[in-house]
Amino acid sequence: MSRRIYAKKSLGQNFLIDKRVKTKIVKNLYLNDKDIVVEVGPGKGALTEIIYNKVNNLIAVEYDDYLYSDLKSRYNNPNIKIVNADAKLIDISNYLENGTSYKFVGNLPYNVANKIILNFLKSVCKPEFMIVMLQLEVAKRIAGHDKFGGYLTVIIGIYCASEILFTVKPSSFKPKPKINSAVMKLTPYKKPKIDQSNIEKFSAFVSKSFISRRKTILNNLSSGNQISKDLAIKILEDANIDSKIRPQNLSVDDWVKLYFSIIKNK
């Protein structure tokens, strides 16, 4: 008799139980038998049970030791590889041939979703696209919806285009989370908008220039980067950006122009 599996709050586990949502997620993967799929956070196998019959190569990455053991015992099949690893840190290229295309899917723990997404977007082996379930508010931040644009919008937007596909109610999970969720699609660019050698400095610059959503980009740029307003005005003019706009209303491309403008003028 198998042991009953309980969700661990410390790992942000909420198991998907809604069959309609499962079907809708898998439908958005547009699978064929030649596809390689990387699933992160398979949990009790809500999506795994549908996907592994549709493709010849499924890599499921599970951090929880007990869930990993349970999945290993249930899916003894050459088409599926169960990996016990931390998706925030895993180097997926170790499990794929160089240049191999794959599709990513995951019901991601809300407390580490951003770190998992960025780990895969930064990988040498980037996914063709990612279908991810995460907290609705975080999804809105990533997509840069009205009033939600911010640091996360820019940092993830350097690597990919994003769109929210549909929302998911708490009743679709067990245990029920206290918030709504969303499934979104992330499509990586062939090349990030910022070269890898500049990523860390760029991230720090955006963080410093986003200290107050209520202030203009001029005030944020000046106080956050400890430069005079005259210099901040020149930087904004060179980047062709209105000094009265608020930082959350700038596009990812605007931030890239600002970054290179401040390097040029500082």
Characterize the structure shown.
The protein is of the alpha/beta class and 266 residues long. It has 2 domains: 9-188, Rossmann fold; 196-265, Orthogonal Bundle (Helicase, Ruva Protein, domain 3). 34% of the residues lie in helices and 18% in strands. The strands form 2 sheets. It has a 7-stranded mixed sheet with strand order 4-3-2-5-6-9-7. Strand 3, helix 3 (65-74) and strand 4 form a beta-alpha-beta unit. Helix 9 (229-238) crosses helix 10. Residues 6-12 have low confidence and may be disordered.
* Number of beta-strand segments: 9
Shape: elongated
Number of domains: 2
SS content category:
alpha/beta
Report the biggest beta sheet as strand number plus sense, adding barrel if it closes: 7 strands, mixed
CATH class membership of the largest domain? Alpha Beta
Count of alpha/pi helices: 10
CATH topology call of the largest domain: Rossmann fold
Query: Share of helix among residues?
Result: 25-40%
For the record, what is the CATH homologous superfamily label of the largest domain?
Vaccinia Virus protein VP39
Radius of gyration: 21 Å
Arithmetic mean of pLDDT = 91
- N→C terminal distance: 68 Å
CATH architecture of the largest domain: 3-Layer(aba) Sandwich
Strand content: 15-25%
